């Protein structure tokens, strides 16, 4: 809270209460390793934190996708590239975000996992840009094929009592 924001291209507008009138938050190139207290901080900084649409957390030291990000239902752009996120399964947390359209994850150790791009596209079918590349019909087809070959469907159990 005591840090002065870097100057951007345009001057930042503020409300009468002194809070920022913005829908984006750029916290890139820091040494953040967790997002503890994130909701509290954005409520102190932003006039309308519920309208947050773009968060840049690139080039930090995050090792996971913090669940706090899944509470931001207007989030459409999320940059997480250049962090230390290991597990590809972390992406599952983002599936709840209805407006997420652009995501970056390259430069994280998870990128080395086999089927990285296909897994993300299967898990987040609404995104249109991934790692700064547009998602094509061919990408979607490849992701569906990969999903059929690699992700086992959940077995449906029929209760004996119902028969």
TrEMBL record:
<dbReference type="InterPro" id="IPR001611">
    <property type="entry name" value="Leu-rich_rpt"/>
</dbReference>
<keyword id="KW-0963">Cytoplasm</keyword>
<keyword id="KW-0677">Repeat</keyword>
<dbReference type="GO" id="GO:0005737">
    <property type="term" value="C:cytoplasm"/>
</dbReference>
<keyword id="KW-0433">Leucine-rich repeat</keyword>
<dbReference type="InterPro" id="IPR032675">
    <property type="entry name" value="LRR_dom_sf"/>
</dbReference>
<dbReference type="Pfam" id="PF14580">
    <property type="entry name" value="LRR_9"/>
</dbReference>
<protein>
    <recommendedName>
        <fullName>Leucine-rich repeat-containing protein 51</fullName>
    </recommendedName>
</protein>
């Amino acid at each position: 809270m005591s840090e002065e924001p870097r100057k951007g291209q345009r001057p930042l507008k503020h409300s009468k209460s002194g809070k920022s009138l913005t829908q984006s938050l750029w916290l890139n190139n820091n040494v953040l390793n967790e997002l503890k207290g994130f909701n509290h901080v954005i409520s102190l900084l932003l006039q309308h934190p519920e309208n947050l649409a773009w968060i840049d957390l690139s080039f930090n030291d995050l090792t996971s996708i913090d669940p706090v990000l899944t509470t931001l239902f207007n989030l459409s752009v999320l940059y997480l590239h250049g962090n230390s996120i290991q597990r590809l399964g972390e992406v599952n947390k983002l599936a709840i975000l209805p407006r997420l359209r652009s995501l970056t994850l390259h430069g994280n150790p998870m990128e080395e996992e086999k089927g990285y791009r296909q897994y993300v596209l299967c898990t987040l079918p609404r995104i249109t840009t991934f790692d700064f590349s547009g998602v094509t019909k061919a990408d979607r087809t490849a992701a569906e094929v990969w999903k059929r070959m690699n992700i086992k469907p959940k077995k449906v159990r029929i209760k004996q009592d119902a028969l």
